[in-house]
Amino acid sequence: MHFSALPISRRALLGGAGATLALTLAGCNTVGLHDQPPLPDERFDYDLAYAARKDGDFDIPAINYKAFDRRYWRQVVDYENREIPGTIVVDPQNKFLYWILSRRKALRYGIGVGKAGFAWSGDAVIRMKQEWPVWRPPKEMIARRPELARYGDDGMEGGPKNPLGARALYLWQGNVDTLYRIHGTNEPSSIGKNVSSGCIRMWHQDVIDLYARVPMNTKVIVLGGDGTTPA
Hints:
Helix content: 10-25%
Shape: globular
Pathway: Cell wall biogenesis; peptidoglycan biosynthesis
Number of helices: 5
Distance between the termini: 15 Å
Strand order of the largest sheet: 1-4-7-6-5-13-9-10-11-12-8
GO molecular function, one term: peptidoglycan L,D-transpeptidase activity
CATH architecture: Beta Barrel
GO cellular component, one term: extracellular region
Number of domains: 1
Protein name: ErfK/YbiS/YcfS/YnhG family
CATH topology: L,D-transpeptidase catalytic domain-like
Pfam family, one: YkuD
């Protein structure tokens, strides 16, 4: 698969062959849930997108997004693929998550990847979505950090200190939980990096944006370590 980090140009959308592209992307904005957020373009207000906000009972801090490589900002990019619009493609190696818009375009988010994020690859579907989910530390983590044993049964309630962050998408294969999650993070500096724990981390603002786009049973493809689709 091939991608380019360049966001779509509004000028391209307004002239010549860009008119066809504009219609295509306008239609793509219907592949997910209704009333989803607008797609980012060259006039997109990143200060607003990554600003502090209130979400339910919790306060989400602003993201210092300018301190990160621009490629990790939420943006529409060129992305050659063969997937049905609305599919999610996770590329752990390159720290990107793509929400497919068409055979040539995708909405891309930056991610952080923990060890669990490299432990599984393949196709799955979203079988559960949760806002401010409860977190239950795995046994391996409790073994390393015994103080977390208090969360082993009932888990840690959702909130800003919860490692799963503002949203979580749970991936299943048939009736089997893969234990693979796409979720928020209470460590925004981990985006674009390999981190010690967790699956696929996103900034709170980005995982909220993705959550608002994708319905239940959305197909998710997690690429292998070499960046290819598992057989």
